[in-house]
Amino acid sequence: VLGVLLTSHLVGCSKSEETHGGVAAASKADPLALPTSGALTTQNLVAYLRARLTFRRADEFSPDFDDSALKNRSFKAVVPVTSGDTSDGAGHFYTYDLPSKRLRIVVMHSAIEDTSGNFSDYAALHIEKVDSAPVGMSNAFGGTKTITPQDRYIFGLRGPGNHLPLFPRGRYGETQSVEVVVEMPPEQARAAVRGLELIFEGTIQGAAPLSACYVSHDPPEFDAIYDITWHECVVSVDLRKITVQSPSAGVLKVLSAENL
């Protein structure tokens, strides 16, 4: 887990996040400006991860990217939930089963592989896709088709270790996504998914550096539409609470370290 069409997709910064006094104006001049008090937002975290992704050391004698200002800061990151019809497997999504009248909300977990081959869990905060001009592709049998190179950027939260707190483990210790199922009639469910969102809360913790970015690419299959390069950037956190809510339905579920 470039050209020229930039599309924000699946998860990102919600309008319902509160801004702190004076921070919005400061952020225009300095995207890494942080509020002096209060919880950091999705915008604050994504700005730092974006800066980490683009940072390049001048040489081996120069310091690495400095994310120490994030250490021990609390965060409250609001992330929209989209329809399963538009999800591509990385973002949080919902589905609705009409016969059973059940709304299913999935808080997705993903895994990132570091340069040593170790995997750790993360949950996406924001995803962007950048398409390049289509190119021709052929196979060993002389077949040809057009494929679109795509850079996919995912910014997210990972645990200080290799497991993200609040996400359940499977039979063999593997991390699983969180599923919330609520029974409600169709019209109520239709209203509930408008503005449906997740709120991730916790504290930024872990060994320095607190953030990291990894780039990976899998050669596409011949029947693929996109040739994807993944740019995954994460910040280490102690995740203490996930709230699932919407304007019409209110709070649908609260997952916290206290009620697990």
Descriptive overview:
The chain is mainly beta. The chain is built from three helices and 14 strands. The strands form two sheets. Strands 1, 2, 6, 7, 8, 9, 11, 12, 13 and 14 form a ten-stranded mixed sheet that branches. A four-stranded mixed sheet has the order 3-4-5-10, with no helix packed on it. It is globular and about 55 Å long.
Per-chain topology:
Elements: E1 5-8, H1 23-29, H2 42-54, E2 74-80, E3 82-83, E4 93-97, E5 102-107, E6 110-113, E7 119-131, E8 135-138, E9 144-158, E10 178-183, H3 186-192, E11 197-204, E12 211-217, E13 226-246, E14 250-256
Parallel strand pairs: 3-4, 9-13
Antiparallel strand pairs: 1-7, 2-11, 4-5, 5-10, 6-7, 7-9, 8-9, 11-13, 12-13, 13-14
Order of helices and strands: EHHEEEEEEEEEHEEEE
N-to-C CA distance: 30 Å
Number of helices: 3
Q: What is the strand content?
A: 35-45%
Total DSSP E strands: 14
Provide the gyration radius in Å: 20 Å
Largest sheet: 10 strands, mixed
Which overall shape is indicated by the principal axes computed on the Cα atoms? globular
The helicity comes to 10-25%
Residue stretches low in confidence (pLDDT < 50, at least 5 long) are 1-27
Average of pLDDT: 86
